[in-house]
């Protein structure tokens, strides 16, 4: 479901009107981020000023993108909404479930066989509900979105953290959980806390070995992995204009690594060139007509301190190439200083692999710059010391790069060309050279380098760099190699030096592709059958959740009192469980297995009050469910922090947990609990957490009067018959109480659509 130009013109017409209104309301010139946010309000025209970092605001995104791992549960939920079609243009991209092993051809055949039922399901649901479907091998979601769907001034959400990549084409693009995407697909608003704004002023020009990637590697070093939380990072300045559009995409992509809500750039000539090169001249023409709205007001960039909450300035003339890592993307070290640091810390100097690609760095420009280094190795007779792997970002990129001889250059160095997919970036890498958990070093042009991320080995030290730096380091085979100053010994025993990389921004002969891998949905999907086998281990159609009745909230048993940190990973672990993302009952077998039981400090070891025996959390919970007994989970501060995955709420709900009572919530998880028709409550008095004992039973004495702003009273009955009364606070509004009363937000949508 591609954008038609009329839709974009409508967005721009709204923008022209709403930006002026917003400027009047806010009372001062606007940043680009504010222009996009205020022109995408759910209510339409702006009527009031929102306070950054405080107000929750309903937005109306222009489109949605989902990747195959997260799309499964999102689409299973959407199927319950009772809609004929998605309300907002949506695409599904099969990129996460393809393992890199021997090379694109064989790996794709293997993925198509092992994940056939998941791909078939996604394809059939997409076809039925008007969703564009990108087949396995078509490319990585964010590269495909940049090439086909992103447009300046637009707003999109996607069920993947690196949705933010589309900021490179001037969007506000934000990664969300599946439940949020389902709301928007079903025609509801999408809520976001109005972000704070960080301005990054780029002066000077990048040149030589320095690339766009080094801008974000530097920013990550400054902001750290949490520094962008709750903020949009807006880049501006002459240096920004001089970056290519895909370079901007790289910078925005890794905004996820500083925790930013998203990042963006104002519309400029580089974006216009990219739009025209990707066959979207109509969008470029439309954008040119509203050019002044697609960047901040001139006063903002002239005096940024007055308009942003924080300002960072980077002089690109002085910026040096960086390698960030290991184990965290914000540990930034200029190339040249890494050897000493590695020796100090015991990081292996020898580099075993250089990996180029991912959604972060697989543009034509990236490949040409890296290939210009690879070609020198051939020309100068330098035998590469590390293995090379390449993941092109899309079939369009791959096809064009093959046509232009770029892939052959890498193959001449013995590189393996993997599928146009995530592969090693998401741990989908069958790495044959590893014998066990041995300590080793790899360099890659991806975004994340947390422990185990690429190959599952906790002792793989992964460093993030630009594709050309990855190529140079991989050729040298050494982490302490500095291509700007060091020489390499070639096969003739001569000392040779690598020249600066040379890139080509856009293919001189244009992009080309034979089969991009896109399947447009049928116009009328009513007769399309969705394929889910009842015996499937990986997919399960959902049944609507049954409302929790007030009488069921008497005699509620404690399932677990979680001690300390309890993130969404503790509640619904990832790793091997990923394969069950589309099967609620199977993935529910990991529910809370990572949470620490406050009474014995063990994980997955809780008391079954019915038998007195101890067992795993899911098994114990299933025993309560079998007897029709509802349960409660008690937790500490910031319960449910981490990802926005809705499984962390759906799984306990599926197993019969009715209430989560904690000292405080991570807000997205709290909302997810509400959406699934559960009670998410907080202690009025935090110390009441200490009153909860292992054999407690809970009576929600005034649940029949559940109302906004009215605390709930809970009678806690201990094993010896003594009682405590606890006051629990909640943040449910009328609509959310409706979700609780009807069993879930989706049940409400379905009723409204009936
Ligand atoms: Fe895929 Fe890695 Fe990007 S997992 S979407 S290539 S961050």
Automatic annotation (TrEMBL):
It comes from Kriegella aquimaris. GO terms for biological process: tricarboxylic acid cycle. Pathway: Carbohydrate metabolism; tricarboxylic acid cycle; isocitrate from oxaloacetate: step 2/2. One of its GO terms (molecular function) is aconitate hydratase activity. Its EC number is 4.2.1.3. Residues 558-686 form the Aconitase A/isopropylmalate dehydratase small subunit swivel domain. The keyword ATP-binding does not apply. Residues 34-477 form the Aconitase/3-isopropylmalate dehydratase large subunit alpha/beta/alpha domain. Keywords: Iron, Iron-sulfur, Lyase, Metal-binding, Transit peptide, Tricarboxylic acid cycle. GO terms for cellular component: cytosol. Gene3D superfamilies: Aconitase, Domain 2 (3.40.1060.10), Aconitase, domain 3 (3.30.499.10), Aconitase, domain 4 (3.20.19.10). Its cofactor is [4Fe-4S] cluster. Transmembrane segments: none annotated. The keyword Iron applies. It is an enzyme of class 4 (lyase). InterPro entries: Acnase/IPM_dHydase_lsu_aba_1/3, Acoase/IPM_deHydtase_lsu_aba, Aconitase/3IPM_dehydase_swvl, Aconitase/IPM_isomerase, Aconitase_4Fe-4S_BS, Aconitase_4Fe-4S_dom, Aconitase_dom2, Aconitase_mito-like. It catalyses: citrate = D-threo-isocitrate. PROSITE patterns: ACONITASE_1, ACONITASE_2. This is Aconitate hydratase A. Belongs to the aconitase/IPM isomerase family.
